[in-house]
Description:
The protein is mainly alpha-helical. It is 54% helix and 11% strand. The chain has 13 helices and eight strands. It has helices at 9-14, 22-58, 68-76, 78-85, 89-113, 131-139, 142-154, 182-190, 196-210, 212-220, 222-230, 246-249, 258-263, and strands at residues 60-65, 158-159, 165-166, 170-171, 175-176, 267-268, 271-278, 286-293. A three-stranded mixed beta sheet has the order 1-8-7, with helices on both faces. A three-stranded mixed beta sheet has the order 2-5-6, covered by helices on one side. Strand 3 and strand 4 (170-171) form a beta hairpin. Helix 3 crosses helix 4 (78-85) and helix 7 runs antiparallel to helix 9. The longest helix is centred in the first third of the chain and has 37 residues, at 22-58. Residues 121-126 and 157-171 have low confidence and may be disordered.
Amino acid sequence: MTRTIDVDPLTLAMAPPPGETIAERLAREEQEERARQVSKHIDHELKLAKAAMRSMQRAVKVLVLGQSMSDFQMTYAQKSWADERDSWKAVILLNLARSINVVASIISEEISNSRAVSPTDKGSHRVGLTEHHRNLVLKLVPLRQIQQDLETLIGSGSSEGDATYNLQRGSQEFVLRSSTGWKTVLDHIRNPRGGKELQLQRVASEVIVSLKDDIHELWNDAAVRNTLQRRKLRLEDTPGFFLNDLDRLASPDYIPSDADVVRARLRTTGVQEYHFHLDRGTPTARDWMMYDVAGV
Length: 296
């Protein structure tokens, strides 16, 4: 009677080929070792993914509106808040540039529509707009490019409204699509892709510093204020308004404060999901998932 010996197919597959030379064996063993390392790396990544999934399942989930996200992070997740705070400088400078560009566009339109511009000296505070206002607006033209450059820096996955201004319903606003929440934007600002992006925020800050006196003069001009009042436009009541903080923001050493970040305006659309690791206010550290309803 013939006895059948069971042989593991995997053992047969892993067995060295007949007639294998020393060089071929060394190459095969090296390839097998690389495969083992790849397998170990995959196993490690799977363990991390499973642990993260378990953590997310245990996380507290909260729906927030408006500025609640920033307030919550500032109070209870101070480490991540501190890591992100300086990155808001680009957003705040964008808010500042956009506000003065709105004012400059309105004044430019008023002058263009006027049949006659009365010549007066620089120090005049007459109600009518003058040639001096036209020249002041021309000095601030570089801020239009600064606004575009900052919008480029803030995210390639963003969409921008029409650059014109409808004075009846306000100007179209720079908006981030739902695929890129503000957390992604801040990461992008902290880690630019290099080249031009590395210089954008520095150049924007330098241009705003150099134009500080002109910005201040236009914003505080009596004729300009009267024009805005007649147009029923109160920028002071809009989110992201920083013109009254010009002296502090238009400084080479400006660093955003907590209050600046809370006031900053970065509009997003859709629902954004953010993960926070709380380090304050709870007996033990805990993960929170927060869902920001944006687009308002």
